[in-house]
Design goal:
Helix content: 40-55%
Shape: elongated
Distance between the termini: 51 Å
Number of domains: 2
Strand order of the largest sheet: 3-5-4
Strand content: 5-15%
Order of helices and strands: HHHEEEHEHHE
Number of strands: 5
Number of helices: 6
Length: 164
């Protein structure tokens, strides 16, 4: 029979993964029951490893499944960070957060009113030797050329930029 301290250590490790949101609570409960019924140390370790994935690039934990929902999380306007320079000019929005929930919020407010939404991806964050200006200039010129025929439409619409 396996030592209880070893089982408790494995279960404690799995519990930490749940707290770190790496392992789903339902998966933890199943693995915990299986570990408690394990006959050998090797068997308990193999059971604990069911919640992990090994790849050539290193050690990875299981992927969390995205929970589907019919609800939209509404973003509240931060009045302390908001400002207006001229009521007659275009109004822009900076939304800080994940792209998908931000787009759902924009869909409610601007459905049928906006032709273009530009989402700025994070380019090589954390790499000091990478020159962002080259990519931003190249991207700006690439977007500007096809957008010229749409210029009258874009001038009357709010320009929306989401940064990742």
């Amino acid at each position: 029979m396996l030592k209880e301290t070893s089982k408790q250590e494995l279960i404690g490790d799995l519990q930490r993964r749940v707290q770190d949101k790496i392992l789903e609570p339902t998966n933890f409960e199943l693995l915990k029951k299986l570990i408690e019924k394990a006959d050998t140390l090797d068997e308990a370790i193999m059971i604990a490893e069911l919640g992990t994935t090994y790849k050539r690039t290193g050690f990875h934990f299981d992927k969390r499944l995205e929970k589907m929902s019919d609800t939209i999380k509404y973003f509240k306007k931060n009045t302390q960070l908001s400002f207006t320079t001229d009521e007659n000019k275009l109004h822009h929005k900076l939304i800080i957060g994940d792209n998908y929930p931000a787009l759902l919020n924009l869909l409610i407010e601007y459905k049928g009113a906006v032709d273009v939404i530009y989402i700025d991806p994070p380019y090589n964050t954390g790499n000091p030797s990478y020159t962002r200006m080259i990519s931003k200039t190249l991207l700006r010129n690439t977007v500007r050329l096809p957008a010229r025929p749409c210029a009258p439409t874009l001038k009357r619409l709010d320009a929306i930029t989401l940064t990742g």
